[in-house]
Design brief:
Largest sheet: none
Number of strands: 0
CATH class of one domain: Mainly Alpha
Length: about 160
């Protein structure tokens, strides 16, 4: 996965879209049919806005394959949806230990910090997400929005 992240950090905006798709596909492949199935079920539950069900699937995935970063990331999203920010932060920390350049997980940190009314920490997280993926539109918009309120100086 590291070569994909390295390419993404250097890619043009057009190239970045294709690399994003490659990274997304790679994240879905753990090498275990069971783990991939649990990940798929967890993602589907998130899409249906059923965080309780998603937590069950992602927890089973984490029990089965704790080295799969997307299990931790997905469960963090479900905890966030329930307003369980502490648990979401804990899971994002584990996801980022396993996959430090996961720009979506880094963006998730920013989202949680914003929800906790910590704009400086949120801005720092969004800037880290942009460092990993310079063309990540959600992070760029968040940085622009927060810089107006927090100030443009580096943290």
């Amino acid at each position: 996965m590291q070569p994909l992240y390295e390419r993404l950090a250097q890619a043009s905006a057009d190239e970045a879209k294709g690399i994003e798709r490659e990274i997304a596909l790679e994240r879905k492949r753990s090498g275990s049919v069971t783990a991939d199935f649990l990940l798929k079920r967890g993602v589907e539950a998130l899409e249906r806005r059923e965080p309780d069900v998603a937590i069950e699937h992602f927890s089973a995935l984490i029990d089965h394959a704790p080295e799969v970063a997307e299990g931790w990331h997905g469960r963090a999203q479900a905890f966030f949806d329930q307003g369980e920010y502490g648990q979401a932060l804990s899971d994002l920390s584990q996801a980022l230990n396993l996959d430090p350049r996961n720009y979506e997980a880094i963006f998730g940190l920013g989202t949680i910090f914003e929800s906790l009314e910590k704009p400086r920490q949120a801005l720092a997280a969004y800037r880290l997400a942009l460092k990993a993926h310079p063309h990540y539109e959600n992070a760029a918009e968040a940085v622009k929005r927060l810089e107006q309120g927090v100030g443009a100086k580096s943290l």
